[in-house]
């Protein structure tokens, strides 16, 4: 079985301008929502208390909300979590209030109303810990970006590095845009997913760029104009691109479907990341590299001799 | 051209063997056990105890599966494994009775536990199952912050009084010793005395950096704590706090607690299996120091709230018999307590008997000799606030052992004695993060994580085999080997598996497919170009290798960043992610080529490969 019967190179670059305009628009929208609505940060970043409760019957969310408000926790969030029996309560961190006791107070009040409530999980995070996490998260993001740019610049050339990193940041910003627009909870695990996407999505650009370099070196295709070289490179890898991402997406969708609420947003971030990762590495990264003016000479001279002895010995 | 030298196959076989052996322990499950550890710091658990445990169990007719003495961690423990929880229950009662001859003053803590069923021969090659994170097995997690400033304060205060007594001993006259922020300022009337004092202090107190005060004004020495001294002091107090916490946790009877230092001034406490958070926090989180102080009786009792608080005393508003005004100078601090136990006074009310060490006894005697009939209070300090535990009247001169009465309930007496026995903390701490996960939720998490990985893996495998036929099967085998190696490496490292970790395994498998797809697509492509099957295999692997290397290095950069800057969930994810990338490079490139070589390598006249239909542009 095989899916791809491509006779001629697909002229991806002919549509580069339109596709990148679409891409830029999505990007701008994502940025807009990020600023307009902001991320719904999880307790790990904001500090506060989270309680997961379970009832033997479907829970009365309104009743719970009233109970919690009655004992003085007005700034709360109460929602069902996973099933109708499970409830998630979120209380922001308060200065001066012993927040580690918040959960006990709330649980006692809820028990008074309905004794069959059970505490499945509580979490309390101090605001200071949250600040540190946010800081560490940003540092990790920065480190990844710098690391990847340096690696690509050494392995290929700065134009490719710049193109790849812009394309991949665009994926990350779009994921964040989704989280801001739908107000999905942005937790530490989601951050891990976002960073994994950054690594993953760069893979994709690297595969394409690898092919571009190889095509430039090819006697038959190397002499073509840059857009045609890019088209050829992308066409030759498209089957692999789609199959690989298909496989990864299967794993991730499996997590989205069977992984339960705890893995839900993690899988959601990866799903979006993978979908945009394909698109961005093909259209955004390659097109940016084209506009930055990559040419045959950039890649050929220094590597040619080395190539014979490199790798391959497996 | 597609043949591996023998050594490469040997490497493969060794890797497989390693994978199987070290993955194996994860499948044996756990059986109920009873864990015995020492409560008293003077008493070490040794192998003799395990003999005694066996003897006791034999007398009670309770056959254990085995009894193991283990010195993992700071203190030794003896664990006896049983075939069911019923026997475990009976054994605990029997052992508790036999080992703790005096129930009011227990020597050993006897706790329920789960011990992995890994067979002895696997344990002997250090093959152990992975730890399960709290999110997978349930329990309580605390992150505690040690108050470093308080440590520094205490140290500086100590040095200030040392300096004072040193100068007084040598009869060097100073006009004042003052505390200014983190510095001690000692002023003198003339330059000469100052330089004498400086030489003396530099000699006697090497912990201090001494600088001269500003010229023009009165001669002055400004003394500050040396940074490395401060660091050791902090280190020591964090260590001491960990020790104290360990003792407290021991008394809670938790099996396999984790008490670790995190960063410079934080301590992580994980108590698997504990569900009663309130009690755990009461014991663990009682970030307390104890002080015995005298009641300032210059203020008439009952008027404490309205009367002016005399200089050198302070008002305590909370606790038993509060409000009360106490002298600021403690008679005694928790450091001097060598033992404390629950007892009953002559009226059969619960009380706490306290034993002091020699130094403490002397201090106590001196302090109480002429204070019979006066009131003395025990104050517990938490987060800088003191709570009066008890106010008692001194009946007679107190020596190195005395009793505190008026506890109210036996539970309160037991808690107080536990706190006193466990020693006070070197520095105050505060819980800054806390999590509780129910065991049921943990089991759900394992099941969900496992299911999602399995279903995903199944679908991917089916697709690979249908699409790439034999080469697809190679890929699936390589992918399974990848999973095997990953689990084996994680088990060898004794990593703690968490839910994000399971997610990372799933994602890593998804990404590892990429390398296989790259190879398979390359081989198809080489065939399309008209290369011979043998050449196609060789070229396919060769060309794909560059790409695989590049893309894995970038993924690794991301993984290392997560590992470096992440904490908690991110770190758990990153460890698995990084290891998975490494194992997938091995399995997808080295191992799967080995399979292809083994299958095709020796055939001279190979006409076709089983890699699915290869469409050529010339075909219809």
Describe the protein in words.
- The complex is a heterodimer of chains A (314) and B (620).
- With 314 residues, chain A is α+β, with helices and mostly antiparallel strands.
- Helices cover 66% and strands 11% of the residues of chain A.
- Chain B is elongated, with a radius of gyration of 34 Å.
- The longest helix of chain B is centred in the C-terminal third of the chain and has 54 residues, at 439-492.
- By secondary structure, chain B is of the alpha+beta class.
Give the helices and strands, then pairings.
The complex is a heterodimer of chains A (314) and B (620).
Chain A: H1 16-36, E1 40-41, H2 43-46, E2 48-54, H3 61-70, E3 77-81, E4 83-92, H4 102-113, E5 118-125, H5 127-155, H6 158-182, E6 185-186, H7 188-217, H8 226-258, H9 260-291, H10 296-307
Parallel strand pairs in A: 1-6
Antiparallel strand pairs in A: 2-4, 2-5, 3-4
Helix pairs in contact in A: 1-6, 1-9, 5-6, 5-7, 6-7, 6-9, 7-8, 7-9, 8-9
Chain B: H1 6-23, E1 30-38, H2 47-59, E2 66-70, E3 77-81, H3 85-99, E4 108-116, H4 120-124, E5 131-132, H5 134-137, E6 139-146, H6 148-169, E7 176-180, E8 183-187, H7 191-204, E9 208-212, E10 220-225, H8 227-252, E11 258-262, E12 266-272, H9 277-284, E13 288-294, E14 313-316, E15 324-327, E16 332-333, E17 337-344, E18 350-356, H10 358-368, E19 375-382, E20 385-393, E21 401-404, H11 410-421, E22 429-437, H12 439-492, E23 496-497, H13 499-528, H14 533-565, H15 569-600
Parallel strand pairs in B: 5-23
Antiparallel strand pairs in B: 1-3, 1-4, 2-3, 6-12, 6-22, 7-8, 8-10, 9-10, 11-12, 13-16, 13-19, 14-15, 17-18, 18-21, 19-20
């Amino acid at each position: 079985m095989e899916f791809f019967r491509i006779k001629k190179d697909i002229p991806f670059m002919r549509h580069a301008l339109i596709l990148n305009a679409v891409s830029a628009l999505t990007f701008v929208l994502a940025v807009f929502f990020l600023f307009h609505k902001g991320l719904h940060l999880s307790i790990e970043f904001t500090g506060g208390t989270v309680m997961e409760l379970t009832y033997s019957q479907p829970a009365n969310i309104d009743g719970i909300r009233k109970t919690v408000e009655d004992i003085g926790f007005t700034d709360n969030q109460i929602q069902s979590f996973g099933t109708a029996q499970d409830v998630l309560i979120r209380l922001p961190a308060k200065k001066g209030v012993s927040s580690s006791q918040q959960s006990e107070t709330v649980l006692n009040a809820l028990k008074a109303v309905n004794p069959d409530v059970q505490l499945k999980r509580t979490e309390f995070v101090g605001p200071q810990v949250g600040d540190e996490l946010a800081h560490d998260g940003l540092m990790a993001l920065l480190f990844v970006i710098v690391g990847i740019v340096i690696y690509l610049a050494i392995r290929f050339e700065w134009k490719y590095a710049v193109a790849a990193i812009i394309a991949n940041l665009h994926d990350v910003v779009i994921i964040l845009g989704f989280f801001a627009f739908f107000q999905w909870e942005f937790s530490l695990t989601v951050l891990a997913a976002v960073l994994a996407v950054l690594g993953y999505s760069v893979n994709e650009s690297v595969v394409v760029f690898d092919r571009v370099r190889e095509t430039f070196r090819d006697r038959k295709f190397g002499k073509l104009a840059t857009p045609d070289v890019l088209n050829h490179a992308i066409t030759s890898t498209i089957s692999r691109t789609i199959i690989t991402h298909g496989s990864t997406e299967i794993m991730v969708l499996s997590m989205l479907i069977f992984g339960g609420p705890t893995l839900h947003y993690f899988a959601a971030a990866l799903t979006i990341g993978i979908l945009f990762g394909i698109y961005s590495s093909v259209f955004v990264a390659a097109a940016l590299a084209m506009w930055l003016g990559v040419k045959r000479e950039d890649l050929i001279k220094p590597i040619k001799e080395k190539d014979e002895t490199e790798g391959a010995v497996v | 051209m597609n043949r591996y030298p023998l050594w490469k196959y040997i490497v493969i076989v060794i890797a497989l063997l390693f994978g199987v052996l070290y993955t194996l322990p994860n499948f044996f499950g756990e059986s109920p056990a009873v864990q015995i550890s020492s409560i008293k710091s003077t008493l070490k658990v040794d192998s003799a105890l395990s003999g005694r445990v066996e003897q006791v169990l034999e007398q009670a007719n309770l056959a254990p599966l085995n009894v193991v003495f283990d010195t993992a961690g700071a203190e030794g423990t003896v664990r006896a494994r049983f075939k069911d929880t019923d026997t475990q229950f009976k054994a605990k009662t029997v052992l508790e009775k036999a080992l703790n001859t005096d129930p009011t003053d227990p020597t050993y803590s006897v706790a329920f536990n789960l011990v992995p069923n890994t067979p002895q021969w696997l344990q002997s090659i250090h093959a152990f199952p992975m730890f399960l994170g709290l999110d997978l097995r349930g329990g309580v997690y605390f992150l505690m912050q040690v108050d470093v400033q308080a440590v520094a304060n205490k140290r500086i205060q100590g040095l200030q009084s040392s300096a004072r007594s040193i100068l007084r001993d040598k009869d060097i006259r100073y006009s004042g010793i003052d505390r200014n922020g983190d510095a001690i300022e000692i002023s003198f009337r003339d330059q000469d005395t100052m330089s004498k004092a400086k030489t003396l202090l530099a000699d006697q107190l090497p912990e201090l950096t001494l600088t001269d005060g500003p010229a023009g004004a009165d001669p002055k020495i400004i003394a500050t704590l040396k940074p490395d001294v401060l660091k050791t002091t902090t280190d020591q107090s964090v260590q001491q706090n960990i020790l104290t916490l360990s003792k407290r946790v021991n008394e809670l009877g938790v099996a396999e607690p984790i008490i670790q230092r995190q960063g410079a001034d934080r301590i992580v406490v994980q108590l698997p299996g504990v569900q009663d958070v309130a009690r755990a926090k009461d014991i663990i989180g009682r970030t307390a120091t104890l002080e015995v102080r005298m009641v300032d009786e210059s203020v008439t009792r009952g008027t404490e709230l309205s009367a002016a608080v005399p200089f050198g005393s302070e008002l305590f508003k909370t606790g038993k018999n509060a409000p009360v005004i106490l002298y600021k100078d403690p008679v005694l601090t928790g450091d001097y307590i060598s033992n404390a136990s629950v007892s009953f006074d002559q009226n059969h009310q619960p009380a706490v008997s306290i034993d002091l060490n020699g130094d403490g006894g002397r201090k106590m005697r001196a302090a109480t000799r002429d204070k019979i009939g006066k009131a003395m209070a025990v104050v517990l300090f938490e987060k800088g606030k003191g709570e009066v535990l008890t106010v008692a009247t001194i009946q007679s001169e107190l020596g190195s052992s005395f009793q505190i009465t008026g506890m109210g309930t036996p539970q309160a007496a037991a808690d107080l004695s536990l706190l006193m026995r466990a020693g006070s903390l070197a520095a105050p701490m505060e819980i800054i993060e806390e999590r509780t996960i129910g065991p049921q939720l943990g089991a759900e998490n394992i099941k969900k994580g496992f299911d999602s990985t399995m279903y995903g893996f199944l679908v991917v495998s089916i697709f690979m085999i249908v699409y790439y036929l034999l080469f697809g099967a190679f890929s699936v085998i390589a992918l399974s080997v990848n999973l095997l190696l990953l689990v084996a490496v994680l088990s060898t490292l004794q990593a703690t598996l968490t839910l994000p970790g399971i997610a990372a395994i799933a994602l890593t498998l998804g990404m590892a497919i990429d390398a296989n797809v790259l190879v398979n697509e390359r081989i198809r492509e080489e065939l399309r170009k008209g290369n011979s099957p043998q050449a196609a295999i060789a070229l396919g692997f060769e060309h794909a290798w560059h790409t695989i290397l590049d893309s894995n290095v970038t993924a690794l950069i991301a993984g290392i960043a997560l590992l470096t800057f992440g904490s908690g969930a991110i770190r758990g994810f990153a460890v698995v992610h990084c290891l998975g990338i490494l194992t997938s490079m091995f399995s997808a490139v080295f191992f799967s080529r080995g399979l292809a070589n083994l299958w095709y390598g020796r055939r001279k006249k190979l006409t076709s490969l089983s890699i699915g239909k290869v469409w050529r542009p010339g075909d219809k």
